[in-house]
Design goal:
51% of the residues lie in helices and 0% in strands. By secondary structure, it is mainly α.
């Protein structure tokens, strides 16, 4: 996981959302992995 992503995210800022989307697009993380890592549903991650 990149330095911009933190396991203890309490608030999803635009910067953090963007960093997560970039990691998914670049293939560093899948939607499923992101969902599990950040306790989100896949639909939340995709939106």
């Amino acid at each position: 996981m990149s330095m911009t992503m933190d396991d203890s995210i309490k608030r999803w800022t635009a910067k953090r959302k963007t960093a997560l989307v970039i990691e998914i697009i670049q293939g560093k993380m899948t939607v499923v992995e992101a969902s599990r890592s950040f306790d989100l549903t896949p639909s939340e991650t995709e939106s």
